[in-house]
Design brief:
The chain has one domain (5-397): Ammonium transporter fold (Orthogonal Bundle). Helix content is 69%, strand content 1%. It has helices at 5-32, 38-65, 100-118, 128-151, 155-159, 167-185, 198-217, 225-253, 258-272, 281-305, 313-331, 334-337, 347-378, 385-390, 392-397; strands at residues 89-90, 98-99. Strands 1-2 form a two-stranded antiparallel ribbon. The radius of gyration is 20 Å and the shape is globular. The chain starts with a helix and ends in a 10-residue tail after the last helix.
Length: 407
């Protein structure tokens, strides 16, 4: 079989970029964490590279993309990639065929990073054993069903719901699961631990921003004009969101904050994700400004209510992803992505997006909370006060990020 070498090379590159996002997330969270919990939070992110990859090959790909048309979940026809040859062809509908294996690998990278996003919410509080159980079952019962329903020809896809690169599938589910985790495990004993390394946060942000081009542009699954639009929309939204957050924080607190600039960029990236290939460039600007303002306000609300979402997963990813899906319903243009939104008079599509993201957020929240209760019957979810005081790096892993006396 002859493959399109250009699209094959592009998808290999996009897959590599999305893979880079998981280490980027580890650096981002590792820099924000207190100095006694750097390795613990980074390890929770990195371990998903291994566990989630094994799960994806074993059952994940099959449950997401095999059978189950119009349903909630797929079947087991392709467990351990049974029946799929390295020479099989994937056709994204554009005539740019490439090996199915690279599509499998690309989607695997999304499965890796999505549960890892949640970890920033419960830094310094959750045992590694409980997290591993959480990592496995959350993918099976939250991530895989929503991938299938939206990207695998399932229920929501048949209803007409769109999500270009993961506003519902990735960010809304992870963000509201993070909030449920916060409510379950409670507050840290020391909520005033400052970031141990803002330069590490900057490195993480840079890797995330860079990798996001593969995340969004790659989600066209081909190389065409929509690919380039998604690429540019991604950068523009991130840039406008970063500067919006910077300005708001500067006005409110009197000083421009580097962490605020970096957090705003990530908020913009999360918010444009569901809409990147469906909206024109001007809409990406509006989405970016909205992301910077709304996600900033969400974080302030979280602080006011006393929710100890340590690294603002809910405010950035949960609210950002939800906002992006809603704004997709508003700004989708038929001439761009083939779907008209509210601004072109299609209120039906707007309400479909609104209802679907609300269902995803509510389900992820409820399932996560219940699952943590169940896990706690078998192994304690929250670490002891002594372990929390020592720090999880030493208490759980017997390692330190820095030599004694550093920082």
């Amino acid at each position: 079989m002859d493959f399109n070498t250009g699209s094959t090379a592009f998808m290999i590159l996009a897959t590599s970029l999305v893979m880079l996002m998981t280490p980027g997330l580890a650096f981002f969270y590792g820099g924000l964490a207190g100095k006694r919990n750097i390795l613990g939070i980074m390890m929770q992110t990195f371990v998903s590279l291994g566990i989630s990859s094994i799960m994806w090959v074993a059952v994940g790909y099959s449950l997401c993309f095999s059978g189950g048309e119009g349903g909630i979940i797929g079947n087991f026809n392709h467990i351990f990639l049974n029946g799929i040859s390295f020479s099989d062809t994937f056709n994204p509908g554009t005539g740019q065929e490439y090996p199915t294996f690279i599509f499998i690998a690309y989607q695997m990278m999304f499965a890796i990073i999505t549960p890892a996003l949640i970890t920033g919410a419960f830094v310094n509080r959750v045992s590694f054993k409980a997290y591993l159980i959480f990592l496995i079952f959350w993918q099976l019962f939250v991530y895989y069903p929503f991938v299938h329903m939206i990207w695998g020809g399932g229920l929501l896809a048949e209803w007409g719901v769109l999500d270009f690169a993961g506003g519902i599938v990735v960010h809304a589910t992870a963000g509201f699961a993070a909030l449920a985790s916060v409510f379950y495990v409670g507050k840290r004993r020391d909520q005033n631990s400052p970031p141990n390394s803002i330069p590490l946060v900057a490195i993480g942000t840079a890797l995330l921003w860079f990798g996001w081009y593969g995340f969004n542009a790659g989600s066209e699954l081909a190389v065409d004009e929509i690919t380039t639009l998604a690429f540019l929309n991604t950068d523009v939204a991130a840039s406008f969101a970063a500067i919006t957050w910077l300005i708001i924080e500067w006005v409110r607190e009197g000083k421009p904050k580097f962490v605020g600039l970096l957090t705003g960029a990530v908020a913009g990236l999360a918010t444009i994700t569901p809409a990147a290939g469906f909206v024109p460039l001007w809409a990406a600007i509006v989405i970016g400004i909205s992301a910077g303002a709304v996600c900033y306000l969400a974080v302030q609300l979280k602080n006011k209510l006393g929710w100890d979402d340590a690294l603002d997963v809910w405010g950035v990813h949960g609210i950002g992803g939800t906002l992006g899906v809603i704004l997709l319903g508003v700004f989708a243009v038929e001439a761009v992505g083939g779907q008209a939104g509210l601004i072109e008079g299609n209120s039906s599509f707007f309400f479909k997006e609104l209802i679907s993201v609300a269902i995803a957020a509510a389900y992820a929240f409820i399932f996560t909370y219940v699952m943590l209760i169940i896990i706690n019957f078998f192994t304690k979810v929250k670490v002891s006060e002594d372990d929390e005081e020592i720090g999880l790096d030493q208490a759980l892993h017997g390692e330190n990020a820095y030599d004694e006396g550093a920082l």
